[in-house]
Write a structure and sequence with these properties.
The chain is built from twelve helices and 13 strands. With 348 residues, it is an alpha/beta fold. It has a seven-stranded parallel beta sheet, with helices on both faces. Strands 7, 9, 11 and 13 form a four-stranded mixed beta sheet that branches. Helix 6 links the parallel strand 5 and strand 6.
Length: 348
């Protein structure tokens, strides 16, 4: 059963999106449909179907079919496809829109499976672009990352879509940002050579109640501690500065790009009012949960997957020019996350 607060967030995401009547009767394929972003998006589209005269056909593609069936057992409009996106794809539905959100996206996964991380982004994107090329229609929304910008201390006010910084390509941690870069280049290349329609969303640090149990990111660990009533443990000084964005705002941004984004363009998805250090993020969450913040060093395997970028701030002006606006402050988004997960039993 969907919690009332979660449904309210889905409603706000839909209300902040362009007219969804354009999706009436369309087929949408979402990869990574049980991840943080894919789950929120699939739930939002399922809710949107309640008011469309001609419902959408939603295909949820993920590696674990059992997890997907449990998650969407009450959503009759959601069809499950069990598939590793990096492997050859057969019998995919003809889709009007594809949202490619399948990728490892947390430190332990980067450390344990850097090759798999790269293949989901590079081969997965190539497979989906080929599918659209073969069907000669449809649009791909590639979910990329602000990590593609790397480190550039000379850009203090936030990366625009035309900026780039340094990434150490010989570090296994580069598996994530470099494969996102390569996938973006594939989208541009398929557009130039074959006319395949695509648009790219460069996401900042996303948080929300659809965080997965496997996620080893610092904010996910903070959240588990807070829900358990335990002190939040910072494994560094927490001085790194990030752009954060609540999942509901991210989903309204993705729907905006799906329907209004310019072909071949990349757009930063970030809340300009939510630029915080990791320590500020932890302290805000701790205050809401009634716990404290402590400090400890992480194990080596976990440290290898951490980003070394000290400032990862993105400028969302290009996205805002399409009419999008973030609605949630960090405090509001974290409060909603805590409330929703508590209503659902507190598990992440």
């Amino acid at each position: 059963m969907m919690s009332p607060r979660y449904r309210d967030d889905l409603e706000r995401a839909l209300a902040a999106s362009p007219t969804l009547n354009a999706l009436s009767g369309k087929t949408i394929l979402i990869t990574g449909a049980t991840g943080l972003i894919g789950t929120f998006l699939t739930d939002a589209l399922t809710l949107a179907n309640e008011r469309l005269e001609c419902p959408m056909r939603i295909w949820a593609l993920c590696r674990n079919a059992q997890t997907a069936r449990q998650r969407y057992c009450h959503a009759e409009c959601v069809n499950i496809i069990s598939q590793d996106v990096s492997l050859p794809m057969k019998d995919l539905p003809q889709a009007d829109y594809i949202v490619h959100a399948a990728s490892n996206a947390h430190p332990l996964a980067f450390s344990a499976d850097p090759v798999g991380t790269m293949m989901a982004n590079i081969l997965g994107t190539k497979n989906l672009l080929e599918h659209l090329r073969e069907q000669a229609c449809g649009r791909l929304l590639f979910v990329s990352s602000g990590e593609i910008y790397g480190e550039n201390p000379n850009i203090p006010d936030g990366f625009s879509e035309d900026d780039f910084g340094k990434i150490d390509t010989m570090s296994p941690r580069a598996c994530y940002p470099e494969s996102k870069r390569a996938a973006e280049a594939l989208c541009a290349s398929y557009g130039k050579q074959y006319g395949v329609d695509s648009v790219t969303a460069r996401l900042c640090y996303v948080y929300g109640p659809t965080i997965t149990a496997a996620n080893s990111r610092a904010d996910a660990q903070f959240l588990r501690k807070a829900l358990a009533g335990e002190d939040i443990v910072l494994k560094s000084a927490g001085s790194q500065v990030r752009s954060y964005c609540y999942a509901a705002d991210v989903v309204s941004a993705l729907l905006t790009l799906l329907l209004r984004g310019e072909t071949g363009q990349a757009y930063n998805v970030a809340n300009r009012a939510c630029t915080h250090s990791i320590r500020e993020y932890a302290e805000t969450l701790a205050a809401l949960a009634g716990v404290s913040v402590t400090f400890d060093l992480p194990p080596e395997a976990e440290r290898q997957g951490y980003s070394k970028v000290s400032r990862a701030v993105q400028n969302p002006a290009r996205l805002e020019a399409l009419g999008w606006k973030a609605l949630y402050s960090l405090r509001d988004g974290l409060q909603n996350t805590l409330n929703i997960l508590r209503e659902q039993g507190g598990a992440t």
